[in-house]
Design brief:
Layout lengths: L2 H21 L13 H5 L43 E5 L13 E5 L5 H14 L2 E2 L3
Parallel strand pairs: 1-2, 2-3
Length: about 130
């Protein structure tokens, strides 16, 4: 194996380890969402601000709160779980300057069926992966 191939494999393994680490982030739950149905339906994050809130005080047994230490590493930010950079495409012509080894295609939601089929056909011909075929 050449040095270039070995280096590429090493980088790929390193990226996979980092992506796996990103997936281990805890699920940040809203305070008392496990107790009240109205909060269960709206499971989005709200910072606990109560004076005696056990979650705000970070007492053992309560879910973790959002902190800066849980942030995604800068090199992985805005990457698709496959490790590729997502690119929104509106027509087949926008595929021209992209690299299939670096980018994953996301077809814009405003694109109709006829043009979507053209984009899918052109992307598959060039070897791109499509996140929302």
């Amino acid at each position: 194996m050449s040095e270039q191939v070995r280096r590429a494999l090493r980088e790929r393994r390193k990226l996979q380890r980092k992506l796996a680490k990103r997936r281990n982030k805890p699920e940040f739950r809203r305070y008392l969402s496990w107790r009240f149905w109205k909060f269960e339906r709206r499971e989005y994050w709200r910072k606990p601000k109560g004076n005696d809130s056990k979650m705000r005080l970070q007492i053992k047994g309560y879910p973790p709160i959002v902190k800066v230490g849980y942030g995604t590493e800068a090199s992985l930010r805005h990457l698709h779980p496959s490790g590729l950079k997502p690119v929104i495409v509106h027509n087949a012509k926008e595929l021209e300057g992209l690299d299939p080894k670096e980018h994953i295609v996301v077809i814009a939601g405003s694109v109709g069926l006829r043009k979507r089929l053209q984009i899918v056909e052109a992307a598959r011909a060039k070897g791109f992966r499509i996140a929302n075929p």
